[in-house]
Amino acid sequence: MLVNTAVFRIRAFVFFLLLFVSRVAVSQTGAPASSDSKKNGKPLHVFLIGNSFSGNAAKYLGELSEEGGHALTLGRAELGGCSLQRHWEIAEAAEANPDDPKGKAYNGKSLKMLLAEGVWDVVTLQQYSMLSGDVDTYQPYAKKLVDYIRKLQPSAKIVFHQTWAYRSDADGFGQIAAGKLAQSEKEMWEKSRAAYHTIAHELGASVIPVGDAFWRISSDPKWAYRKDTGYDFAKPQAPSLPNQDHSLHVGYSWKDNKLGFDSHHASAAGCYLGSLVWYGFLFHESPVDLKFVPESVPTDFAAQLRKTAWSTVKKSGKGVKN
């Protein structure tokens, strides 16, 4: 009797140990499994279908991946200001006639040609930022593209890159419904976040939460950008610029003796934050201790961006399809 009881206890212990190990092994980020890129040097192959925002968000991904010991291969189908609709129309034109120049919009290549250049582990999609808050602009193009990618790259994990809202002092914000624009950075973030997650849920995809990370910085009392109210915007004098500390967007700059303003695209700090989020999402690994920092990003701000990127990735993993 004592022997049987001992055997039962041992078997119960082994069962619960195996159950624990199996649960720990499950990814908590909803991201693609990619540990092989570090364990055996096998590159993670990632293909980006996007525009200048995907270029911004992955700008420093190569440097971060190299420092982290992860082999990475990137492929790109990017066109400035390109929407999901336009990407699909380009693919559709190439399918109808492979020789049609309209179907070879990516430096003389079609989307099919570019996807055929490798076996991709991850393929990312994103909406044009001006339309990102209007869920009606995503379909049917998102589904058509997802179906197309799955046909050409059946083993690839498809994810949506959640883009960011424009800077708080922008002259205008993105569309949230037909004929209606967001009235603030916060509203643009809220509506675009909801749209990305709605579409990702419908299509069984994950979301890279770059937009969430941007908003966490933009809404932080200590780290948020604040417009310089002491600068004379009515009569600016080159090369003087307003204070733009902690800006994740390009903002003001001088060109040809004219003061320009870009409230949409990411600054070096914004590109760094985006790349940190991608790193954490793709490799299931914290970027907090990485040393690489773009030259123009202050050390203390860079440290906060690393922490914010990782905490955002971890948080999104619990409800990536919500």
Automatic annotation (TrEMBL):
This is DUF4886 domain-containing protein. It holds the Pfam family DUF4886. Residues 46-171 form the DUF4886 domain. It comes from Larkinella humicola. One of its GO terms (molecular function) is hydrolase activity, acting on ester bonds. The lineage of its organism: Bacteria, Pseudomonadati, Bacteroidota, Cytophagia, Cytophagales. Residues 1-27 form the signal peptide. Keywords: Signal. InterPro entries: DUF4886 (IPR032616), SGNH_hydro_sf (IPR036514). SUPFAM superfamilies: SGNH hydrolase.
